[in-house]
């Protein structure tokens, strides 16, 4: 059972991270679900629609719609599965990779600007150390 102090820190951290995440996402131009699909394809390479659905924890029908929207925008392409003729693989197009990098750049750019303008040198150093701790917590 966590201590009262740990529980209080966890509650404050969850609230602050939620607010920061929502604010960073405000910089997005591509809907969140579509950016998540592009990110999964960037990290994992070509995937079937079923694998994408499992990765994103959505129904295959929902993923099929998302992939269709991304295809209409030329952000992803389909190609035949190399070993199973009944399946196809979805992969990032060059335009999709460019769009994803632009989204990431907007997010990082906004956050970097705020860190630089709002935090002191000491606060930036503390934040950098905290990022390592947050990463460690996220991998547990």
Keywords, please?
140 residues; globular; two-stranded antiparallel sheet; single chain; 71% helix; 6 helices; mainly alpha
Q: Oligomeric form of this entry?
A: single chain
Strand order of the largest sheet: 1-2
Instruction: Report low-confidence residues grouped into runs of 5 or more.
Output: none
End-to-end separation in angstroms reads: 17 Å
Class by alpha and beta content:
mainly alpha
Shape by Cα distribution: globular
Largest sheet descriptor: 2 strands, antiparallel
**Estimated radius of gyration:** 19 Å
The count of DSSP E runs of length 2 or more, i.e. the number of strands, is 2
Tally of helical segments: 6
What is the typical, i.e. mean, pLDDT? 94
Tell me what portion of residues adopts beta-strand conformation.
Answer: 5-15%
SSE sequence, one letter per element: HHHHEEHH
- Percent range of helical residues: over 70%
Question: Mind sketching the topology for me?
Answer:
Blueprint: H1 4-25, H2 32-44, H3 49-56, H4 60-72, E1 76-80, E2 88-92, H5 94-118, H6 121-138
Antiparallel strand pairs: 1-2
Helix pairs in contact: 2-5, 3-4
């Amino acid at each position: 059972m966590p201590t009262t102090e740990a529980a209080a820190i966890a509650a404050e951290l969850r609230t602050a991270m939620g607010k920061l995440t929502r604010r960073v996402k405000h910089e997005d131009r591509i809907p969140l679900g579509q950016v998540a699909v592009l990110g999964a394809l960037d990290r994992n390479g070509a995937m079937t629609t079923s694998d994408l659905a499992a990765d994103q924890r959505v129904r295959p029908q929902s993923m099929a719609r998302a992939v269709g929207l991304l295809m209409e925008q030329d952000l992803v392409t389909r190609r035949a599965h190399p070993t199973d003729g009944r399946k196809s693989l979805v992969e990032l197009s060059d335009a999709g990779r460019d769009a994803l990098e632009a989204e990431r750049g907007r997010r990082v750019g906004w956050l970097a600007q705020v860190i630089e303008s709002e935090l002191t040198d000491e606060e930036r150093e503390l934040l950098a150390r905290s990022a390592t701790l947050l990463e460690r917590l996220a991998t547990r």
